[in-house]
Amino acid sequence: MEKINIKIIIGSTRQNRFGEKPAKWIYEEAKKLEKVEVELLDLRNYPMPFFNSSLSPATAQGKYEDEIVQKWSEKIKEGDAFIIITPEYNHGYPAVLKNAIDVIYSEWNKKPIGFVSYGGVGGARSVEQLRQVAIGLQMAPIRNAIHITGEMFFKAIADRNSQNFEVFEPLREQLQNFLNELLWWAKTLKNGRANK
User: What percent of the chain has pLDDT above 90?
Assistant: First the structure.
């Protein structure tokens, strides 16, 4: 089978956001996997308008009015699997992430997605909401998620070295299980899409 393309999406655009650090750690770990291509997607690089298209993304057939949305569409279409790094704000995930999800549709279909979260209760409530959204997009949200606890969060923030991932070491085995599950679904669904 050809390589599996994993897109890691940083789900916040705030200044001094925490999400970059776990995103870079996961990116470095995923790059070590065989037959995998991995790319880090930063929503800051895709300043899309809030969903305002006259045409539903479900009927757009991959053609979008906005140039940035079209660029985003093409990046997501390349992906065979997705990892979203998300904070939890007020028991939910960021509006900018919801918008990035909603402006396109078919590009997400029949692909697996996993979540890494931080914030209140490790971001668990934002992940539960995102699982429902993923199902609405005909995606396969994997069972395992990675929830970064408050203690780990504050240790990582205190360390100003953005390339020092030692604080995440207790999550290494969990991350390996997470990536193994994501890859199993990615291979299975990619084969299914190819044989439809």
Answer: 82
